[in-house]
Design goal:
This protein is mainly α. Helix content is about 35%, strand content about 5%. The longest helix is centred in the middle third of the chain and has 14 residues, at about 30-40. The protein is globular.
């Protein structure tokens, strides 16, 4: 029996690049792109806005979606 895995949800409006890149699906360049996008466009209104970032493919978005929140 293994313990329950607690999904740590990432708030893409408050997480910095170092926090973001600790996620297994987020490499440094993507973490950086998320932070840059936020600086240019303001806070994310929904997780779907990540799709506006060129580096985030539809496949990557599908993998990330369960782990991200916007608050």
């Amino acid at each position: 029996q293994c313990g329950a895995v607690i999904l740590q949800k990432l708030n893409i409006n408050t997480a910095d690049a170092n926090t973001l890149k600790q996620h297994p699906y987020i490499r440094w360049n993507i973490a950086n792109a998320i932070v840059q996008y936020r600086q240019q466009h303001g806070l994310f209104r929904s997780p779907e806005e990540l799709k506006q970032i060129v580096l985030i493919t539809p496949e990557l978005y599908q993998k990330l979606a369960p782990y991200i929140i916007v608050e």
